[in-house]
Amino acid sequence: MMDYLRRNLGRSFRTSPFRAPLRAWALVPVFVIVSVSVGFTTGLLSVEPMTSTMAALLPLTLFVFPSLLEEAFFRGVLVPRDILESGAARATGAVAISTAVFVAWHPFNALAFNHSAIPLFLDPWFLVMVCALGITCGYSYVVSRSIWVPVVIHWATVTAWVLVFGGRNLVLEL
What we know:
It contains 7 helices and no strands.
């Protein structure tokens, strides 16, 4: 297990996102279109910039959790870094499994640890957006082989949601 983590997660931390092929970012526009469409249609997103004094500290906090920690597990541990060498079908399967676990994590997290998040984390439309994020991050990880690409995507998403689009800061509510 330790050897797998060293080879998989360890190497993915040492792989620069600046060396990632442009196609590693290819699903980001699709994710944004899906999330904006679903979010504004269902009321999960609204333009409500955060005015709290905590707003300046949140990007750093949101970088560590959920972005870095969730991506390290859901992509860096669950998806073998070199899975693409096994073929597109296996890579797709690995991304699908990690996305399914990522989506399931959200309701589990709310029910087990963060009860104030239950209405949001059990909302089917929110879970559609989480699924789109999981696919986007999984694809970016498989193509780039760097954990930093999905971390940046996840971080930018959550930070924009909390600071600009009316999202609740669930991290500080724990």
